[in-house]
Every structure is written in structure tokens, then in C-alpha cells.
Write a structure and sequence with these properties.
By secondary structure, this protein is of the alpha/beta class. The protein has 15 helices and 15 strands. The strands form two sheets. Strands 9-8-10-11-7-12-13-14-15 form a nine-stranded mixed beta sheet, sandwiched between helices. A six-stranded antiparallel beta sheet has the order 3-2-1-6-5-4, with helices on one face. A hairpin with a 5-residue loop joins strand 1 and strand 2. The longest helix is centred in the N-terminal third of the chain and has 18 residues.
């Protein structure tokens, strides 16, 4: 049987001689087949050998809390070079660099998904098992070359992510929400709930958050709509940002929050801290799951209640998904105007229905009319966002919540997305957000807060 060194040398020569065919195999086939990773057993053996040598050499130093990230990286890369030199193997520079990078990613980062987390153009990384990785780029899903060694390798990576913020995932608690140090949102589900192996989903966090100008450039909304929303936030309207999963609600919430004046005290409440506010007076709160004994959980509802005792000018809730809706409505109705939150829904009317349902989850035996009166009194504006077929994320409704008429809350669209133009030859939507020509009733409320809106914003001949 040939030695590991001989097998590696042969593999390295083969890789150099067949680079073009390897590249073709690493890409997804035109027929829709799965992407294949060209990786020999010999290379995996060398990687494992160097990895184990490195762990033995560094040992507890990897977990020394006194080391900065920069010092740890220098130490690992230095030891990695020594370990590679000690292996009596002839490798091409490309193969040597590849193995060194993969081991460094494993120890310092999150293994095979680390290159995708570094890519600023990606918005989502999805791991559907140790050998099946997908990404979202420009709203489109695509499978990529890359894999974890096995299920245990993937589980170690998940544990590494969640343990850094004091959370856990195991058979007794097989689902977890967490975040990366940069704020990226993480969800993990492990067996027995995930039948085909652990599933890891990461919603990437933009290191340079999008501004209102960015969203206008992307076509999410227009300058005219941006001016109107700016006035609504400064005028302390209670706003709900609604939409489906991945529609861009958090990005829009972040932009709306940027309109809040710098002299106000802002409290943000989130499951996983994502919002990036640059005002001077921001207090950030984050919910906490139960510990291993099933105790100590702090829910969004608890934080909303507590926020009312912290003298907030504004309360910004990352997402309302349960009985916290009742406390949010109470806050909006008890003098905390200017609150903003997000809700999952299919449209403005569905948003109100979801809020009603979530209020009932609080266990209060309230008549439906009383709940709707609370909603109509508390909520001023619904900003609904959707992800269109071309992958773009657009605001499709800017809708005023008016009043009760009988048992129904009346809504009025101030801006509405025009779908009539259809799509171009590349499948991109040609529509845009257009004013309906109707002036909202809350203009008077804005005026009372010394915020005035140019009437031409509502002219029907523009967006």
C-alpha cells in the first residue's frame, strides 16, 4: 500500500493536470445536479493530521481569555506553518494554501462556511446537512462547493456559535436562535427534529448597514416615500413594519430608526441583537432562553413591560410574534408614541389580523371589538415589504390605519406598489411605489409635533 506522502504527491500532480475539469466539477451542472467537491482521501488525511498536531501543540492556549483575537490568529497561523513544514509531503503552493486556510477557518472561524461569511455580497448561508451548503446572492439561491467533514464537525461548529452568547443546543433543546459576534442572525435545528442531519441558517449582518439612500438606489422605495417616512418617524407616529420572512423588514426597521432625533432615549428589544443605531442615547435589550433546568427565560413581553419603567422616548421592538403584542399596544396607547416594531404577515390587512391573534395569545378574555379599538387607536402606519419574484425586496404598501367603522378597522393606502408594468426580459420587476393621491388623516398629528409634510408628496403623478 502506498504511503500518505506518495498518495498526496500523486493527488497534487493530478489536481494540477486536471484543474480545468476540477473547476467544472465543482460547479453546479446545467441539468440542475448537485455541486461536487473535488477532495481526495489523501488530502483529508493530511488536513486531519495537521489539525490534530496543531491542537496538541496549542492546547488550552486556544481558550485563553487574556489573548486578543489578533494575538490568537498570529499564534495559530504561526503554529500552522510549523505543523505544515513538519509534514514530509510535497504539495503545490495552491494545495498548501488551501489546507492552511481550511484549518485556520476551523480553529479561528466556522469551518467551511467561513469564506461565505466573509463575502459581503451574500445575504444568507444555509447548511442543510454536513455536505449540503446553499447561499443567497441578490435574492437568488444557489448551491455551493463546500462541506463539513461529517455531522460531528457541523455540530461542533453550531456549539461554537451558540456557546459564545451563553446559549445551548442539545437533544433536550434541539432548536436555538443565536447571533454571531458581528450581529448576524443564526438559527440551528439538530436531530431528532432535523431528520437528515443538523440544519444551520445564518442571516448575514451587514458590517456597513444600509442607509435610506441605499434603499432608494436599490429601488425598495422612492425619495418621495423616504421623505414621508422620515416625517412620520420624527412626528412620533406608531409604525409597524410587516412582511414575509426574508423580505427585508429588519433592514427597513433599521433605516426608519435612523430617522429618530438624536436627543431622544431609544430602547431596542430583540431576540438577537441586530439593529445598528447611531444615535447618542440607545439602550439595547435582548431576550434570553431558559437554562438547562427550564428556568430563567426572559421573553420579549417581559422586556417590553420592563422598558416602560426605563423612561423611554422610543421603544423599538425587533419582532413581535406572541403575546408581547398586547404590551406593545399598551405602550403605544399610554404615551409612548413613536414606537416601531416588525410583524410577519402577507399584507396590511393581515397585519392587523395577526396582531389581534397575538393579543389573544396573552390569555386575556377580551372581546374582539375591544382589541380592534386598541389596535386602531395605537397603530398609525403600516409599512409592508415583500420579496418579489426577481429576488428584489420592495416596499409594496405604506398604509394609514384610520379608525373603526362598525367592527372593522379602515385602512387607507398612501403609497402603493404598481405591478402593472410587469417584468423586463431578465425577469426584473419594472414597477415602483406610487402615491395614491390620498392625504392621510394623521397629518394633523404630525403638525402637533411640529413636523410638516409637503402636500406635493401625495401628488398622484409621481412616486
Amino acid at each position: 500500500m502506498s504511503s500518505l506522502a506518495d498518495r498526496l504527491a500523486a493527488a497534487s500532480r493530478d489536481r494540477a493536470a486536471n484543474l480545468s475539469s476540477s473547476t467544472a466539477l465543482e460547479q453546479k451542472t446545467a441539468s440542475g445536479g448537485r455541486a461536487k467537491r473535488v477532495d481526495t482521501d489523501a488530502f483529508r488525511e493530511l488536513k486531519a493530521s495537521v489539525h490534530n498536531r496543531l491542537l496538541t501543540q496549542l492546547g488550552p492556549k486556544l481558550y485563553d481569555v487574556n489573548l486578543t483575537q489578533g494575538e490568537l490568529e498570529r499564534m495559530v497561523r504561526g503554529a500552522l506553518q510549523e505543523a505544515m513544514q513538519e509534514e514530509d509531503v510535497i504539495l503545490s503552493p495552491a494545495d498548501r494554501t488551501r489546507i492552511a486556510q481550511e484549518i485556520a477557518d476551523d480553529i479561528l472561524g466556522y469551518g467551511p462556511i467561513e469564506p461565505f461569511l466573509r463575502d459581503p455580497d451574500l445575504t444568507e448561508v444555509m447548511v442543510n446537512g454536513h455536505d449540503d451548503i446553499w447561499i443567497e446572492r441578490s435574492g437568488r439561491l444557489q448551491q455551493v462547493e463546500g462541506r463539513f467533514s461529517d455531522e460531528q464537525h457541523l455540530r461542533r461548529t453550531i456549539d461554537k456559535i451558540v456557546s459564545r452568547i451563553g446559549r445551548r443546543v442539545d437533544e433536550s433543546s434541539p432548536m436555538v436562535d443565536a447571533r454571531l459576534p458581528d450581529g448576524s442572525r443564526v438559527n440551528a435545528v439538530i436531530p431528532p427534529l432535523a431528520i437528515d442531519g443538523s440544519v444551520l441558517t445564518i442571516r448575514k449582518f451587514s458590517a456597513d448597514p444600509y442607509t435610506v439612500d441605499d434603499l432608494v438606489a436599490f429601488g425598495s422605495f422612492t425619495h418621495r416615500t423616504a421623505q414621508f417616512l422620515d416625517a412620520c418617524v420624527r412626528g412620533k407616529l406608531n409604525i409597524i413594519v410587516s412582511g414575509s420572512t426574508g423580505a427585508g423588514k429588519t433592514t427597513t426597521l433599521n433605516v426608519l430608526s435612523s430617522f429618530i432625533p438624536t436627543d431622544e432615549r431609544i430602547l431596542t428589544i430583540e431576540d438577537a441583537a441586530e439593529l445598528q443605531l447611531h444615535q447618542d442615547h440607545v439602550v439595547r435589550l435582548e431576550s434570553r432562553p431558559a437554562n438547562i433546568e427550564g428556568k430563567g427565560a426572559v421573553h420579549i413581553r417581559d422586556l417590553v413591560k420592563n422598558a416602560l419603567r426605563m423612561r423611554p422616548d422610543r421603544i423599538v421592538v425587533g419582532e413581535v410574534r406572541d403575546s408581547a403584542a398586547l404590551d406593545m399596544l399598551q405602550a403605544m396607547n399610554t404615551g409612548h408614541d413613536g414606537s416601531i416594531c416588525t410583524v410577519h404577515s402577507n399584507g396590511p390587512r393581515d397585519t392587523l389580523a395577526r396582531i389581534e391573534t397575538m393579543v389573544l395569545m396573552a390569555g386575556m378574555d377580551l372581546p374582539m371589538r375591544a382589541i380592534r379599538e386598541q389596535v386602531a387607536s395605537a397603530v398609525d402606519l403600516i409599512v409592508h415589504q415583500a420579496r418579489l419574484r426577481d429576488g428584489s425586496r420592495r416596499i409594496t404598501h405604506v398604509t394609514e390605519v384610520e379608525r373603526m367603522e362598525g367592527d372593522v378597522i379602515t385602512l387607507q393606502d398612501v403609497f402603493l406598489y404598481d405591478h402593472s408594468k410587469g417584468f423586463d426580459e431578465d425577469g426584473r420587476s419594472l414597477g415602483g411605489l406610487r402615491a395614491t393621491g390620498l392625504r392621510p388623516k394623521f397629518i394633523e398629528k404630525l403638525a402637533h409635533n411640529n413636523v410638516h409634510v409637503d402636500p406635493m408628496i401625495f401628488a398622484r403623478d409621481g412616486g
